[in-house]
TrEMBL record:
Matches recorded under Pfam families: STAS
STAS domain boundaries: 13-121
Species per Swiss-Prot/TrEMBL record: Lacipirellula parvula
Classification via Gene3D superfamilies: STAS domain
Cross-referenced SUPFAM superfamilies: SpoIIaa-like
Top-level taxonomy: Bacteria, Pseudomonadati, Planctomycetota, Planctomycetia, Pirellulales
Protein name (database record): STAS domain-containing protein
């Protein structure tokens, strides 16, 4: 399991990640802003190597900036290159509305629970053959 902490503008934001079968689970807390999104993107791109799919747990996220959404799209493209999928889970009402209004819901598998997200995008732990 990996972890990083970014502090900006007096607020703390964290990222932890863990591999589940062929899916990387990235759990954020705090806001995803222009200050921390580039570092998170770089870190997740580096640790994504063994994974095919990606689950972003946004349960503890109160705000995502435009830079944060660009980070998500970049990660989505990296996952697509691997033949995987990217799920978003735990979005509050405002984030869900933004994802729907911008059309980002077309790119991501939007799930209500972490179990649902892992079940939808993770192949190895479900007994399915991995796409390599």
């Amino acid at each position: 399991m990996g972890a990083s902490t970014m502090i900006g503008n007096g607020s703390m934001s964290t990222l932890t990640y863990e591999l589940y079968g062929d899916a990387l689970l990235a759990t954020f807390s705090g806001a995803i802003t222009r200050h921390n999104a580039p570092g998170y993107q770089e870190e997740l791109a580096a640790v994504l190597e063994p994974a095919r799919s990606l689950v972003l747990d946004l349960t503890e996220v109160d705000d995502v900036s435009g830079t944060g959404f660009r980070m998500m799209l970049h990660l989505y493209h990296l996952v697509c290159i691997r033949g995987g999928e990217m799920a978003l889970v735990g979005m509050n009402g405002e984030l869900r509305d933004t994802v729907e209004a911008t059309g980002f819901g077309e790119f991501f598998v939007v799930c209500k629970t972490l179990d649902e997200a892992i079940e939808r995008v993770c192949r190895d732990s479900q007994g399915h053959a991995s796409v390599r």
